[in-house]
Structures are given as structure tokens and as C-alpha cells.
Amino acid sequence: MASDSPSADQVHQPGTADGWHGIIPSNAFPAEPNRYHLYIGLFCPFAHRVNFVRHLKGLTHIIHTSVVKPYPKGDAKGWPGWKFPATETEYPGATVDHLFGEDYLHKVYFRADAEYKGRYSVPLLWDTKSNTAVANESIDILRWLPRAFNAHLPPALAAIDLYPAHLRAKIDAISPWLQADLNTGVYKAGFAETQEVYNEKVIPVFGALNKLERLVAAHGGPFVLGKEMTELDVLLYATLIRFDTVYVQHFKCNLGTIRHDYPVLNNWLKGMYWDVPAARASTDFRHIKENYTKSHEMINPRAITPVGPYPDVEEGVERDW
Fold first, then answer.
1. Domains and CATH numbers, the chain
2. pTM of this prediction exceeds 0.90
């Protein structure tokens, strides 16, 4: 059932840095297959959340995508921003802009608001009928997308609920510190401009990992809260799949690695990657590694991408939690 349609200023405040906060289904944005188009980058952990759900819920035939290249990003202020390849073969996994044929993502944003002052980020969900943006905040989309198109899905896929009523209290208690200390915590440490700031910001990252190691162990796996996958698993996966690969060396989050210092989380990560098809389908390590190492000149001025670690994800999931 559609929710009440948000007013125009609730979806987006024109001419400002405010993003888009539309919801599907609603009166403004009904749940119609093939009506919406998703702009993503396979490198971005925030866009990864949405693409993960898109695969998990079997929405790949309902919501089609355009994928920006992982680099270049632009100047220190992000201008001109993410770019589409000129052809489908220029950079494997990246695509042309399938809707408008634009060369830069910012031009798509300007189609929704010519005076937009915010970031030209991914994900961006677009409504092809009203020809405007729906939403570009991943945490909001993660909350409503898993249920948005249930009426158009087979029962087995419609039954997947990442925010079940009986686990909401736990999810709501864990999600804030998971996001603040780990999901964005790696960025706070990685983009620190002084030793003092880095020293301060890197500690909460590993504090969160320590808590999660105990939490997953206490619930007995294979997911964060036990037998049922929730949005916490999506939030955690998008960060941990990048941790040993880029965050340890590139963001200097090297007080430990997942594979060597967090056995429970490493087993959880292996289980997600090898046992959940949506995880593998939405993960591209070349995009991930080359984005961070070739678009952050301040951190890696020569844009050299490390070969390791090897393997990207270890095999051999332990079933006896």
C-alpha cells in the first residue's frame, strides 16, 4: 500500500545541498516495475548497500542500472565528479548513462535541480515517468527498498524482510554506532589531515570491530543477529568486504585485519560472500581497489594500486558457530 505522498519540500529543497528523500511506494512514487533507474558506482560502500538489496530481492529485472567509472572523481571539491565511460567496453563493469547519455553524473543531478548545491553522489534513484530524482541517501533506501516491490515478486523473495518487527529494537540499538564508528569511521580515520586527528579517529573503528566480534559470536551466526539476515548484515558487509582490501593500507586502519585478528567476523564475511549470491553479484574488487587508490590524490598521489591482499576473500566457511 502506498504511503502518503511527501510534499515537494520534503522530498528535496531546490537550490540547496539537500538531497532527495522520496519513498517507494508513495503517491508520488508508486511501486511500478521498470519505472525507476538506479545510478551506482560498484566501488562505493553506500551504493553497494542498495545494489546488494537489488540482487537479494530479485529486483534486477525491475530496477535497471547505470554504473559510473571508479575514477577519476575530480578536484578536491569533487568537481566534475563521477564520469560514465564513453562505451560499454571502456572500463569493465561500468556502463554508459542508459537514460540520458550524459558523460558526467552531475548532469543527471542538474536535470532534477539545475541549482543543486550538494554532492553528486551514488546511489541516485531516478523516476523515469516524472523525470526527477527519488532518493540518494542509501540508509533511507535500505530501509524501504526491501519491501517496496513485494507485490511484484514471488513469495520466496517477497518474504525476505531485512527489518523484521521482532528484531527492530536490536537493529535500532546497533545501527547508529555501526554506522558512526565503522561505516563512516574508516573515512574519518582515512581522511584525517593531522596525526592527532588520525590517532583519535582510528580507535573507534576497532572498538566497533571488537564489539561486533563479540556480538556475532553471541548470536551464533551465520548472520549478525543469528539465523535471520537483517539490514545490519548489509551495512556491515559493504564495509568489511573493503576492509582488508583497501581500508587497512589506504585509510591506515591497520591495528588489525579481519582475516588475521577477527576470526568470527572473518567467518561471517566468508559466509556472506560465498553463501549469499547477492553479495558476490554486487562486489567488484577491481572497481573497489582502483577507486580508492586512483581517486584520492591527497592519500595516494602516484595512484599505484597494491596487488594484494590475496585472496580477496578467504574460502572455507566454518559451519559450527
1. 8-158 (3.40.30.10), 165-295 (1.20.1050.10)
2. yes
